Amino acid sequence: MKTKLLYYALPLLLTFTIWSCGDKSEQQMLKSDKSYEMSHENPGSRNNNIAPTLKSTTNLDAKEKAEEKIPDVKDQRMIIRTGSLSIETDKYDDAEKKITDIVIKYSGFISNSKSTVNSSGNKSGTITVKVPADKYDALISDVSKIGKVMNQNIQANDVTEEYVDLESRLKTQKELEQRLIKLLSEKASKLAEVIEVEDKLASVRQKIESYEGKMKLLKSQSDLSTLTISVYEPSMISTSSGGGFFYELGQAVKKGLSGFTNVLAVSITILIAIIPILAIIFMIFLIIKRIIKNRKTKKDSLK
Question: Which of 147, 239, 267, 269 could bridge 87 with an S-S bond, Cβ 3.0-4.6 Å?
Answer without folding.
Answer: 147
